[in-house]
């Protein structure tokens, strides 16, 4: 006896599309808000920004009856070149826009905007190669309390101010920190009556917590070097270690092309990055 099955009746069975779409997972973007910004100084014009460095002046013992001696430092500058121009774009033909059950322009505008922001964040984190403080930690080994303290000590020895410091680590290292009791136990961190150890701040959505008063951010955008093991280049930086100057903040532009019967949607930005104080940051290997 023949039965009507889903196979024989396949032509009658509709495919239902969800009302919502699943957007691709995005990396946490945390670096750009944590560095020195010079956006306003290049917004109007210019291709090169000169940032003066003022050296310290050493005190001298005063000899009675003699005049003071004067110090004349030969100061230096850091050059920030506004030479990076990135974009992301899509071209949506009318037939796709008309027949789609979704607002394609809105969906893709969000995604190309993220693509540009990710590139900026990547270039900021790429400045880790310009840091001169000796690295701490070991590739292929999770960070521990000794490594975190060593990174802090290295900046202390460079006279780096405590405020405006931040750790930026991979999610693997955020997980490793969770295994260190003294960082998470309520009786150790003094938060017995508080809901948790998360603090507010730039990109607090990706703020793991604090280690000895310094915020720890995590992101999959941490620079890596392929190998066995994979090398993760986490950092501890002060805000003054790196500089970012966005001449054109990410801008969204759309235009209808009659010749193509399509909408073109583009997001672009013009910016520059540079290491300003090489001793104000340190790589934490893992």
Features:
single chain; 286 residues; alpha+beta; phage-related protein like fold; 7-stranded mixed β-sheet; 21% helix
**Number of E strands:** 13
The end-to-end span amounts to: 66 Å
What characteristic shape results from the CA principal axes? flat
Order of helices and strands: EHEEEHHEHEHHHEEEEEEE
Gyration radius (Cα, Å) is 26 Å
Q: Could you explain how this protein is built, in words?
A:
Strands 5, 6, 7, 8, 9, 10 and 13 form a 7-stranded mixed sheet that branches. Strands 1-11-12-4 form a 4-stranded mixed sheet. A two-stranded antiparallel ribbon has the order 2-3. Helix content is 21%, strand content 31%. It has helices spanning 39-42, 94-99, 104-125, 145-157, 171-178, 181-184, 186-189; strands at 36-37, 48-53, 76-81, 84-93, 133-137, 165-169, 207-211, 214-218, 224-225, 231-238, 242-257, 262-275, 281-285. The chain is flat and about 110 Å long. The chain has one domain: Alpha-Beta Complex (phage-related protein like fold).
């Amino acid at each position: 006896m023949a039965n009507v099955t889903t196979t024989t009746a396949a032509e009658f069975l509709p495919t239902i599309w969800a009302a919502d779409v699943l957007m691709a997972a995005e990396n946490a973007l945390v670096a750009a808000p944590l560095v020195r910004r010079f956006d306003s100084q290049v917004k109007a014009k210019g291709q090169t920004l000169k940032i003066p460095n003022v050296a310290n002046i050493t005190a001298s013992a005063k000899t009675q009856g003699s005049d003071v001696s004067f110090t004349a430092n030969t100061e230096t500058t850091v050059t920030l070149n506004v030479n990076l121009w990135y974009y992301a774009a899509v071209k949506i033909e009318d037939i796709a826009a008309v027949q789609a059950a979704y607002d394609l322009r809105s969906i893709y505008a969000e995604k190309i905007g993220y693509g540009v922001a990710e590139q900026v964040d990547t270039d900021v984190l790429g400045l880790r190669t310009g840091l001169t403080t000796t690295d701490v930690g070991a590739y292929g080994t999770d960070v521990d309390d000794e490594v975190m303290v060593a990174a802090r000590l290295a900046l202390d020895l460079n006279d780096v101010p405590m405020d405006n410091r931040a750790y930026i680590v991979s999610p693997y290292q955020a997980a490793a920190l969770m295994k260190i009791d003294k960082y998470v136990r309520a009786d150790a961190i003094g938060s017995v009556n508080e809901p948790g150890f998360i603090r507010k701040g730039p990109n607090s959505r990706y703020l793991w917590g604090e280690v000895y008063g310094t915020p720890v951010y995590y992101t999959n955008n941490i620079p890596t070097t392929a190998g066995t093991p994979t090398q993760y280049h986490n950092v501890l930086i002060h805000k003054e270690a790196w500089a970012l100057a966005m001449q054109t903040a990410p801008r969204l532009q759309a235009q209808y092309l009659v010749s193509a019967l399509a909408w073109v949607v583009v997001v672009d930005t013009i910016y520059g990055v540079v290491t300003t104080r090489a001793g104000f940051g340190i790589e934490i290997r893992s």
